């Protein structure tokens, strides 16, 4: 007898929500139970029904859905959504697309999402609520701290550390051993060759601080 896959609720009907649903539709271990959104604008996403706004969370949990995922791209908003899901009693399992590649010893923490064609090198560590987006590479011994986001096609060489809540834009490349500080932003296409201070924004080749104004 074939066991039914466990259900997982997706919070977020936007672009990242669609990407997470695509992951779940390809996944053999989970099935998408539905979507909730702070302000629903559509009836379904990729054929998965939108079940209402967050006021439905308690009822859905009582109805037997035990797991959920905060499918929100913005790091601070994703953290806040995860807090609301856990307060409602949902577990936040890690989600790894079946087309991702995980090296020996790579670890993915709760609430994180590793998307299609992403590569995690040996002993890479992906923190809670992180996103490793489509085609991104986190090489050996890389560390993403909680709620960091590595954009599509970005390449983090060995021993790179990305601080909590930091964002590495699409197509950026980071030299081995570099640390990107908490809340920092690496612009799309940047080539980072030295440490980035917490809260800073860097862009260009080689990457340099962006001065506001």
Automatic annotation (TrEMBL):
<dbReference type="Pfam" id="PF17836">
    <property type="entry name" value="PglD_N"/>
</dbReference>
<comment type="similarity">
    <text>Belongs to the transferase hexapeptide repeat family.</text>
</comment>
<dbReference type="InterPro" id="IPR050179">
    <property type="entry name" value="Trans_hexapeptide_repeat"/>
</dbReference>
<dbReference type="InterPro" id="IPR011004">
    <property type="entry name" value="Trimer_LpxA-like_sf"/>
</dbReference>
<dbReference type="InterPro" id="IPR041561">
    <property type="entry name" value="PglD_N"/>
</dbReference>
<keyword id="KW-0808">Transferase</keyword>
<dbReference type="Pfam" id="PF00132">
    <property type="entry name" value="Hexapep"/>
</dbReference>
<dbReference type="InterPro" id="IPR018357">
    <property type="entry name" value="Hexapep_transf_CS"/>
</dbReference>
<feature type="domain" description="PglD N-terminal">
    <location>
        <begin position="8"/>
        <end position="85"/>
    </location>
</feature>
<dbReference type="InterPro" id="IPR001451">
    <property type="entry name" value="Hexapep"/>
</dbReference>
<dbReference type="InterPro" id="IPR020019">
    <property type="entry name" value="AcTrfase_PglD-like"/>
</dbReference>
<keyword id="KW-0677">Repeat</keyword>
<keyword id="KW-0012">Acyltransferase</keyword>
<protein>
    <submittedName>
        <fullName>NeuD/PglB/VioB family sugar acetyltransferase</fullName>
    </submittedName>
</protein>
């Amino acid at each position: 007898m074939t066991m039914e896959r466990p259900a997982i609720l997706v919070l977020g009907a936007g672009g990242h929500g669609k990407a997470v649903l695509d992951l779940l539709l390809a996944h053999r271990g989970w099935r998408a139970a539905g979507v909730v959104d702070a302000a629903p604008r559509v009836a379904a996403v990729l054929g998965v029904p939108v079940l209402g706004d967050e006021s439905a969370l308690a009822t859905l949990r009582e109805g037997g859905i035990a797991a959920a995922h905060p499918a929100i791209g913005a790091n601070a908003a994703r953290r806040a959504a995860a807090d609301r899901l856990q307060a409602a009693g949902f577990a936040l399992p890690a989600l790894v697309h079946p087309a991702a590649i995980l090296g020996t010893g790579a670890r993915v923490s709760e609430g994180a999402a590793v998307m299609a064609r992403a590569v995690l090198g040996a002993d890479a560590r992906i923190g809670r609520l992180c996103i490793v987006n489509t085609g991104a590479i986190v090489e050996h011994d890389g560390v993403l701290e909680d709620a960091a986001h590595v954009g599509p096609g970005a390449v983090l060489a060995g021993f790179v550390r990305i601080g909590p809540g930091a964002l590495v834009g699409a197509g950026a490349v980071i030299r081995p051993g570099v640390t990107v500080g908490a809340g920092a932003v690496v612009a799309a296409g940047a080539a980072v060759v030295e440490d980035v201070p917490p809260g800073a924004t860097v862009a260009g080749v080689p990457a340099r601080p962006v001065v506001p104004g």
